[in-house]
Structures are given as structure tokens and as C-alpha cells.
Amino acid sequence: MYHHWKENHNGHAASSSREVGPSGSQHVGSEFQDDVDRGLKDVVRHMFQYSKCTGRKKALCIGINYIGQKHELKGCINDARHVHDFLLNHCNYKNENIMVLTDGDANKRRWPTKANMLGAMRWLVQDAHAHDSLFFHYSGHGGRTRDLDGDEISGFDEVIYPMDYLEHGSIIDDILHDFLVRPLPMGCRLTALFDCCHSGTVLDLPFSYDTHGNLTLQVTQKAYRKKMSSADVICWSGSKDGQTSADTFQGGVAVGAMSYAFIKSLRANHNQSYQGLLKSVRTILYPRYSQTPQLGSSHRIDTKIRFII
Fold first, then answer.
1. 196: which of 11, 27, 84, 142 fits an S-S bond (Cβ 3.0–4.6 Å)?
2. Is 141 designated active site?
3. pTM of this prediction?
4. Mean pLDDT in each 10-residue stretch from start to end of the chain (309 residues)?
């Protein structure tokens, strides 16, 4: 197991740059895509549906400071609370449909133990339907371990660490995919936000995009069919698989750099394309932080259309 913990930084991030608005609305409908490039030898017929995000909205926010442990963090609990407030006040989520797990909670049932985290993931995707909008946020430690099933191009799986990982172990990306992606029906949106080290492909989604809209295949050819989904899954992560992520301070408050930048950008401009939001988040973090935020998806997307939650 390779442990790379969040780095601690002080200071203020740079301001977001002005971005050109999205080229159009996110369209809806069943689509087939022929994946004959990117190292795929066979034509794969992949049907998926964009989500309107007009159905039920549910969210799970997890923040782990690892209180009293060797690699304690400062900003992750704040991140979970800030994302909760952002979804509540800016994205039309209701408080009763947002679950928050932190190791600072007085109620042990809301502690981010491995068992509680997996149970909360089941709750999040339970009874999901087309055009629902689900949101998953994790702020804490991340790491890497050797890939044993041959689905990773890099040869490493990504993992996240519950508060009790020393006793019960980490949660590997294959499990995250099985719990959060595989159960979703066609047309259901899951937006995931990971603020941790080595998080670029932490949901095992097949595609990633750069700020120019260029696509890269992120799983091996033999795993491609297994990792595809007819749902509308989008993952924003704080760093590439080989990078660390920062735990920092903004306005005297401890926060995770990626969580801060994501909220800051969308509060300033809610009408952004996928490509514009990725550029904006990277601009907010650069040059103070070395991490490079990533955009992953379960299907090919036009990164110039509007990102919605």
C-alpha cells in the first residue's frame, strides 16, 4: 500500500479567470457511441442518457480529519459542511436529503467508519431513477495500492481511508465503482467530488478530459465493458493519480483546496461548461498548489455544454 497524505499549505488561492459561457444546454436522449480508437480493438456499442437533473436530489458528504491520529488533517470536516451548505443554498437540495458523515460529530452513527460509509453509499443510490441528481463528496486521505485484477492502465488502484482504516482497512476504487456507479439506472446523474490524494481515477470511470476537451481512456481494454455505465456519472477530483492534494487555509478557515475551488468557482458563475469549470478550478489553485484537478466521466461528453447539478 502506498500512503500519500494530504499536504498542508497556508495562504490564499488565486482568483478565478473569466471564462466563455457554455455553448448550449445538456441535451437528453439515448445515444450510441462507437469506441474504435483510444486503444480499443473492437467496436463497443454504448448506450447512455444525459440526465436533466430535474428529479429527486440526494447527497452524501464525508469529511474526515482523523482526529487524534498520526496523520490528522484540519479542513476536511469543514469541507463536508461547506459542500452541504452549497448544495442546500445554491443547488436546490433539501436538508433531509443530505447525509453528512464526519469524525467530529457527537453522534457515532454519523461517524465515517468504513461500515457507515458503505451503508451511506447504499442509501445514496437506493431507488435511483432517470433524471435524479445524486451528489457524493469525500474529503480525507487517499492512497494507491497494486492493481490485482488488471483494470488499471497505471497498474495501481486508488483508495480512500475511513476514520477506522487502521482496524478495518481502506476502500478501494473497485468497491467505490460497485457501490456508487454500477447500481445506477440509465439517465441518473451522479456528480462526485473527491478532495484527496491520488484521486484522478478513484471511481474507475472509463474516460477523462483535459481543459481542451481531449479524451483519454483510463481503464484497460479488458475492463472497458465492465466499467461502462448507462448512467450519467461525472467525477471531479483534486489531483492526478500520481499527485497529492492540499489541506490549506482560506480566510483563516482550514479547508481542502479542491473543495474550496469547486465551490468558489460555481458560486461566482453557476453557468459554466464542463471545460470552463475545469479551467476555472485549475486557475483558482494555480500556481499556489501543484495538484491538477481532473474531470472523469462514465461516457463521452461534449465538454463545451453546460455542467448542471
1. 142
2. yes
3. 0.87
4. 46 33 48 44 65 98 97 96 98 98 97 98 98 98 84 80 98 96 97 90 90 86 82 91 80 92 97 96 89 91 95
